[in-house]
Design brief:
The chain folds into 2 domains: about 400 residues, no CATH class; about 60 residues, no CATH class. The protein has 19 helices and 4 strands. It has a two-stranded antiparallel ribbon with strand order 1-4. It has a two-stranded antiparallel ribbon with strand order 2-3. Helix 4 packs across helix 11. It starts with about 45 loop residues before the first helix and ends with a helix.
């Protein structure tokens, strides 16, 4: 089976220990990842938002959290715009249809926005963390271009429609979400977290930083595909090319570079909201220079979209069709493999995102545990299951949450503000795409730059520790998958410890997960 984290989406993208004392620092930079001294408890007569989200304890304010929530939304909203076409395209590919089903596209857009609202509210009130959930680009690609075609192959010689394939895939996502929740309730997930070596955990922040950087460079058109070298720099000398599309691409890359430098200057001067200001300034330049143009009309039929949502995706899980696909034993074996693989990738993707971003921002207690990590992952698991019931691909704790955390977001109020913006995305859908990728791309590059400070905490003196950490950092961006980075890190860690006679240093979770990834890569 092909590896998850594939690079199929055009606008690709893409998530404990509960401490009693919160010792989170709230800098607007990742330079200091050391926990701050314990803050005083929130007084009983404090304002409502302060009491609900413990703003004083987290050394933050309503203004900072709102700014962080807005920043996260504009850096994350591209996911709900890209996922609908991806899901409909995967279903069409599985059955050999001529093109994506518009009904599925409409349904998935509504489902993706609603699942983002649900997941972000869970992060806000269940975990009180500043992370946002949305349909994951890597998981969406895996579902659309690996799982759905596999369902189509499994169906031969039976005939399925694209709607059936889509709804069967939702059933698999729902099952993986339930399994994710079960792992949380039984304590297995906590054992997995504790069993991952510290050096690999530390390396996750730097790896995700590079991953985010590549996403931003690609979105903004600074880095483009190349047949000879896989990726290359856009040809800036094409600014006078006779093809208008080529000129627009070059201009977009120039604007993205300018937007990134603006964010960097503002950040260096300690201007609050530097990333958000950069997004809006780059957007204004994109329209002023003609690189981005307003659509000719706003002929968005919101009623039709909700109708398709109710018809195709809402509670649209199709389990029965699996029973008609040949031998029951063979079908169950294939389905179980898909569910386990999807659950494992989802769990480690979210773990990598939450741990990497939070530890880089100093959101850890004195023992190095991410405060609220367990509840954050539980929110992620519930969001995955709930999103499948709505008709969305797997929700995940998106890496672009780092953009808001970098602005100082430290509590669930950040996630609440972002979820409110997603509500507006339902009623103002024609306006959401007006923020171009050349404006949000620089935000991801900026955050990736700041997250690279984590690399200084990696111990490179012991090669049995250094090699796994290095692979975690390198494989994530180069394979477009957080889970792949974790997989290579754990596998190499087990092999090196065994080969050097240090097998006692291998935890059973690391060995088990490494073995499962080996099987997944080979099957």
């Amino acid at each position: 089976m092909p590896k998850p984290g594939v690079d199929h989406a055009k606008h690709a993208s893409t998530n404990h220990h509960v401490a009693t004392i919160l010792v989170v620092s709230a800098p607007t930079t990742y330079k200091n990842a050391t926990p701050a001294p314990p803050a005083p408890k929130t007084p009983h007569d404090a304002p409502l938002l302060d009491r609900v989200f413990r703003l004083s304890e987290n050394r933050t304010t309503v203004r900072v959290e709102v700014m962080a929530g807005l920043t996260t939304f504009f850096a994350s909203v591209f996911t709900v715009l890209a996922i609908p076409g991806m899901m409909a395209g995967g279903a069409a590919m599985a059955v050999g249809a001529d093109g994506p089903n518009p009904g599925i596209v409409n349904a998935v857009y509504i489902a993706a926005v609603l699942s983002s609202i649900l997941g972000s509210l869970l992060m806000a009130f269940l975990a009180n963390l500043p992370f946002v959930q949305a349909p994951g680009m890597g998981l969406g690609s895996y579902l659309a271009f690996t799982v759905m075609p596999a369902i189509g192959v499994l169906a031969a010689p039976a005939t399925l429609t694209d709607v059936q394939v889509f709804q069967m895939a939702l059933a698999l996502v729902f099952a993986s979400g339930l399994l994710f929740v079960l792992l949380s309730a039984t304590g297995v997930r906590q054992a997995i977290i504790d069993g991952i070596p510290r050096n690999i955990k530390v390396a996750l922040g730097a790896g995700i930083g590079l991953f985010i950087t590549l996403l931003g460079l690609r979105q903004s058109g600074v880095v483009v595909a190349s047949g000879g070298t896989f990726v290359t720099l856009v040809n800036f000398s094409d600014w006078g090319h006779q093809d208008a599309a080529v000129r627009a691409q070059v201009l977009g890359a120039v604007l993205a570079v300018a937007g990134f430098l603006l964010m960097a200057v503002l950040h260096a001067r300690k201007v609050k909201g530097a990333i958000l200001i950069g997004i809006f300034a780059t957007t204004a330049l994109a329209y002023a220079t003609g690189q981005t143009a307003l659509p000719e009309s706003f002929s968005f039929d919101l009623g039709r979209q909700f109708s398709d949502f109710a018809q195709y995706s809402l509670f649209g899980l199709d389990v029965g069709s699996f029973l008609n696909l040949g031998s029951l034993g063979h079908v169950l074996a294939v389905v179980l493999a898909m569910v386990l693989a999807h659950c494992l990738v989802n769990a480690l993707d979210s773990l990598g995102t939450i741990f990497g971003v939070a530890s880089a921002a100093g959101m850890v207690d004195r023992d190095g545990h991410v405060v609220g990590l367990e509840r954050g992952l539980l929110s992620d698991a519930i969001g995955t299951a709930g999103g499948a019931l709505l008709g969305s691909s797997s929700t995940a704790t998106v890496v672009s949450s780092a953009s808001g955390i970098n602005e100082g977001g430290r509590t669930g109020l950040t996630a609440l503000v972002t979820s409110g913006m997603f509500v507006l995305a339902l009623v103002a859908a024609p306006f959401v795409p007006l923020i171009p990728l050349v404006a949000t791309g620089p935000a991801l590059i900026m955050v990736g730059c700041l997250m690279m400070s984590q690399v200084k905490q990696v111990d490179f003196h012991d090669l049995t520790e250094a090699v796994p950490a290095f692979l975690a950092i390198a494989i994530m961006p180069l394979t477009f998958s957080i889970a792949n980075g974790i997989a290579f890190a754990l596998i190499s860690c087990v092999v090196l410890k065994l080969a050097t006679g240090r097998w006692r240093e291998i935890s059973w979770p690391a060995a088990t997960i490494g073995a499962l990834f080996v099987l997944q890569f080979l099957v």
